[in-house]
Predict the structure of Aminopeptidase N.
Amino acid sequence: MRDEDGVTIRLEDYRPADFQIHHVDMTVRLFEGHAEIDTTLELERRPGAPADAELRLDGDELTLTTLALDGVAVPAQGFEAAADRLTLRGLPQSGRFRLAIGTRIEPERNTKLMGLYRSNGVWCTQCEAEGFRRITYFLDRPDCLATYRVRLEADREAAPILLANGNPVGGGPLGELRHFAEWFDPHPKPSYLFAVVAGRLDAVSETFVTGSGREVALTIYTERGLSERAGYAMDALKRSMRWDERRFGREYDLDVFNIVAISDFNMGAMENKGLNVFNHKYVLLDPDTATDADYAGVETVIAHEYFHNWTGNRITCRDWFQLCLKEGLTVYRDQEFSSDERSRPVKRIASVHTLKANQFPEDQGPLQHPVRPTQYREINNFYTATVYDKGSELVRMIATILGEQKFRAGMDLYFERHDGEAATIEDFVTCFEDAGGIDLSQFFLWYQQAGTPKLEVSQIYDETAGRLTLRLRQSLDKGAAGTGTRPMHIPVRYGLVGANGQDLDVSGASTDARVDGDLIHLTGEEATVTFDGLSGRPYLSILRDFSAPVDLRYNEAEADRLALARLDPNPFGRWRALTDMVGDALVAAIRNGQDAAPDSVLDAMVAAAADETLEPALRAQMVSLPGETELTRLVARDVDTDVIHAVRVSTLAALGRRGQGTFEALRRELADTGAFSPSAQAAGRRALRNTLLAPLATAARDPSVAVTQYETARNMSDRLAALTVLTHHFAGSAAAETALGAFYERFVDDQLVLDKWFMLQASAPDAGTLDKVVALAAHPAFRLANPNRARALLAGLAGLNPYVFHRADGAGYRWMADMLGKLDTLNPQTAARMATAFRSWRSMEPKRREAAQAALSELAGRDGLSRDLADILDRTLR
Ligand code: BES
Ligand code: ZN
């Protein structure tokens, strides 16, 4: 599948491997400083494969120690071994044969955190996407499914716990000092789902009984002394298991389910069969050290990785171009889980907010690619917001188009047809065509065409006739990916809202498009929908629940927005109307040199905050101003981040002044009393109370309300909210410095809280931040090799702090480029991921644009860059 230049992999070049690996037998011997891996592959030439086909196994930085075919050492002319490939010739034409491969690796020196590595003394693995080839030579591709039997051997002191995929099948002592454990995974799986863990770990365990009565032993392992913090994760796991049974009819399929929390981990977590490995930030929680956002994050990630057992593991991907088959679908499933467990509108608003913040800029910039890409240089760079979040939106649109029951029938058909297989997007979509009795060929363009379609909406109301006419129009620009621009199937959910806030009956609409209740299927470039017999002009609540991931262009009157923000019966519609109004007002102020958004807009926010018919979490979302990063996206061209910062701060203060009485009363009413609960309701109350802190403190130009909250806080949400206001709005003040110092002292031994301390300072929009960040990079607690710590500082600045990252003098860009260069020598994957912060450089004003380009070009020109980082830089500059 690799090009001649060894660089670009293309979907169109896919073909199955010439050999099939039926079974893998592995012995992993762990020692201080190195590991020995003995692997026996049970192989067979695939029917129809050429008789002279060589066996070409993937490797990455490997050293071969032994090689035997059916028990006989392979002679030198029979193979060729390099660090990245093992090639064998003259293998049997038919029948199964056994190939024994010995490799030797050094987990302690593995700073890429791919393959087998050591984190804080614990041996662990990360194999997705192409990490298994760093352990042994293999057909390291997702369409090669095999059963695995794994034997682990290690020092009993250093590694009392020995874990692998599947069920435990044996174990015992090995002489005085060592011991072993054996595991067997009966479910054929691709190598990317392989995992082993060994170390000194604490555990919490519970039993789960599945719907059909099977007992499953659930265990969460943590580093020593931290297992009390795994209780909420365990609870989330059990709720996830029950939910997947109820909502999708999916039961767990092994005797054990293990989760291990690791402190050095590139990503959030990994769904290895029966042995999920997690970044410990998505397992460990208590009220003192974790915020409500952390609790919600743990719940989501636990659910997501668990749900992969069916969508990803039982049915996996044929090749990495099909990544959204498992990731987009599993994000959809975890979003649905959170909606059912917490609040549907609040979750939907949060997801749409994330999509717009992360995926829209990706889809509209140099890193644009379709949800199913057709080529890549480095697959790690395609675990993107487009594959994940837009991929989830596509599944959601299929559910919207089919309706709940047919969607479920399509999912059932997918599981029935493809269980045990490595499937494609075509396979997936065909199941919904068959179950729904519907043609989704036009819909399929969503997977192939990159870019955010524009949806233009206009309306004409004829007073005398009582007739409302809606016009919808779609268009798609050719972007960096250069894919097609054909009209797509866009489901547009809508409502007409009467003056008293009631939904009008829309069943009598006449149209040249297909309309199905409150859903317009826009399939052509344009559609017109007409409503007759109206007694007055209704308010149009368009694109309810964000029924399609489009860029809505609707010249909506402010009076309509104010009305919808107050009385749309669809809660998402209320948020949509208000935030579009706030966003437009801020962009206008920024572009026209005004000081702040107008009072009419601020008053609508104050009213939303006080509206007791809405749940507090939703009110918090409605009274939140867009962040500076979001404003950077909304301004879109010739961006000056100094102006954005100035306008946002004055608007925040103006909001605090307009709402002062209301906000103070609300904060008293919502004050923390009684025992801590992590429930969505309790978190929502804290969210609303804490959202009001910044406007009040900035309006008063006085940090004391935040100081008091910091000093009296009884949980991390309240404490961090106060500290954020102090560091971000009173940077450099005695109040801020005192609180930061106290926070450090209090949590100096807690790695996860120290990450917050680093990130908070890096994300402060203040002229002094860059100097502070330079000093923090030299702080004894800073470790570039730890991804969480590196992200806290680098992504804290480049991702969360446009005011400093986009400094007009270019110093932010240069610092970031320099740090990325250093990080790249340790951990290319994490460096490449954070380099995407540069993706919007072309939307800056000329001076910044030039500075960004210079910093990027300097970095891109360095020798010895990883393929990961070079790929991102090349595409960003192209
Ligand atoms: N399979 C991924 C983990 C992964 C990502 C492995 C990239 C290798 C490369 C996992 O299921 C995942 O998607 N994790 C997300 C969190 C999730 C809730 C979206 C992550 O790690 O960010
Ligand atoms: Zn995933």
Remarks:
- The chain is about 40% helix and 20% strand.
- The pocket of BES (ligand 1) is lined by residues 128-129, 267-271, 300-301, 304-305, 308, 327, 331, 334, 380, 383, 388 (CB under 6 Å).
- The CA atoms of residues 27 and 151 lie 5 Å apart.
